[in-house]
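Why run this: before we spend reagent on co-expression, it is cheaper to look at a predicted model of the complex and decide which construct boundaries make sense. The entries below are exactly what would go into the expression plan.
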Amino acid sequence: MANNPSKKNPPEENGKVIPLIKGRRATSYDVARLAGVSQSAVSRCFKPGSSISGKMRERVMKAAKELEYQPNAIARGLITQRSNLVAVLVSGRLNLYYPEALFKITEELSAAGLRALLFTVESEEDAETVIEQAWQFQVDGVISASHMSQAQYELLEKRKIPVVFFNRYFADHPNTVVYCDPSEQIDSLAKQLAELGHTRAALISGPSENMVSRERTRMTKASLARFNIDLVAEVQGDFSYESGAAGLQSIKQQNGNTPSVIVCINDMMGMGCMDEARSVLGLSVPSDLSIVSFDGIGMSQFSSYELTTVRQPIGRMSEAAVRMITERVERPDQSHEKRVFEGAVIPGGSIARAPS
Amino acid sequence: MANNPSKKNPPEENGKVIPLIKGRRATSYDVARLAGVSQSAVSRCFKPGSSISGKMRERVMKAAKELEYQPNAIARGLITQRSNLVAVLVSGRLNLYYPEALFKITEELSAAGLRALLFTVESEEDAETVIEQAWQFQVDGVISASHMSQAQYELLEKRKIPVVFFNRYFADHPNTVVYCDPSEQIDSLAKQLAELGHTRAALISGPSENMVSRERTRMTKASLARFNIDLVAEVQGDFSYESGAAGLQSIKQQNGNTPSVIVCINDMMGMGCMDEARSVLGLSVPSDLSIVSFDGIGMSQFSSYELTTVRQPIGRMSEAAVRMITERVERPDQSHEKRVFEGAVIPGGSIARAPS
DNA sequence: GTGAAAGCGCTAACAA
DNA sequence: TTGTTAGCGCTTTCAC
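The model came back. Tokens follow.
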């Protein structure tokens, strides 16, 4: 095939070994030439589990070291049809309001020998282009922690790119999912609130298209009802601190019974809500107003907040997501799996007996 | 070269056009066959600026659309020697204590047509393996917002991989850098503190190997001295909330003059320090104790904190970093550049007249 | 403007 | 165990 002189296999050329054409990075051919072996022998040395003699390995490795040779992962990917790249789709929201998550996922991917190709997606159009990009870069799989439409998911499926959803899924479609189910914890919190004399609650939910928000909202309503706590107001936020603060304001402006406890669908809004209650409305939390929320991010336990919240086991969830993506890459036709982790209540200090 | 039937250029085979071998993803050959043109024509259609007729383009694009063809970026990278991949090196610290940064960088890369290959580096050994990984994946460049030793940097230089340092640099080595210089702002804050009657300050610095921490520390000391404010204590933290709290404790335990103002080298420690002052020591901030810090992260302005801090223009810095990396990829031999942005004081509410 | 052909650096099937 | 060879999917001369 080749008439590039550097590709000829005879180990030496006109009697001289030229270690490396200046400025070019060493290829397996360069190493082969220096070691006086075939190029495929070099390739084998870098593939674990290949049958190769100790002598050969030694010679090759010596030459490789000398030339600072490292196999070209791009070329390898081209032939093996495995890029070892995983697209990680996150929204700005996720990283700002839950910075631990992205970091954990990346670390776990790394530990599994995969690289994270990071994509930020803010809108459905973003998701569109991101999916095309991921496809162009031949990613082995996708971990989606951001919005994705069902059509987009189906496109990926059709293209045989495994997808693991992180904290979201399509109910009416088979998909591989890692998820946190806080229903038990919500229930126990509701019970606790009832025992503390709370009878009127308000809810600050997240964006309605967000799965986590919808589920937490649904579970919260169920649990409150179960323990005879009225939901006297419900407002929608966008997961941000500001929207938590604004949410409390609009709850207060609604006529009728004022709630003695606010459930915020994530910690960041819980913090906004708490700050608004204290600094603007002059309320004392928890004695005038109790607040509970979800996520268990680091900040929620800062002593200014100490939110009573339902933590997600983000480390285990990340590990699971990565394990699932590698599994689906190995066995694409395997049936789907949904791994659901329980939450855990962080007691915090943002709930107390309802004011009388 | 090829005897793979799908590679034969004759557009049709035994009279039938087979749109796509089932399950395989379409290649430029498939598109060529369907469109009845040569494979190279397809390639040209996807390269902007190629000379190609309207008719041809139309035919090819139609076929491409039908087959959902997208060029394989990996194969392209192999031949063009450009992966369009940029390694982004961040520490967990960065993302936890400054979540805005990574996000901005990724977005800017994306806008420049580059993909972020995300690496987390916690230690010098991590950096070692990360650099090898980046090299294997043929990244076009590296944006380093994490620790990197000079030897590691020199290795990358030797391999002709452009590096842009984000908020760090080697003083005695030419390098391309985007940086924030808060000295003016520190000076004006010091002046303001002096005018408010402060004469005793303490400092909570960051890890000594961290450039940003060292520089901020140095500048702070200079400015305090300039305005005759004594530095009565200096303790070292690790940028975390907890270390800010612990830092205040150890300052308090040191005998001698108690400071009326604490300078924290980043916001996260400022928040820890403030919380510790309020909830544990029972001090009122700012009337009993003033606090100033650096970064200007979103959280620092939550109403529980409202830190007086020196903000970094992180958006502009990210944009600059990406622009610099693309420039260095285009022209690797161009001389280095250092882009230094000024900070900006966020007035906040954490400083007040020194208690008498 | 278009097509033929080479080859980027690697892996893998096959032969020796 | 080792070497030979084809070819992954693309870009890029080079003819025409």
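Residues 1-21 of chain A have pLDDT under 50 and may be disordered. The first strand of chain A starts at residue 85 and ends at 90. Bring this page to Monday's planning discussion.
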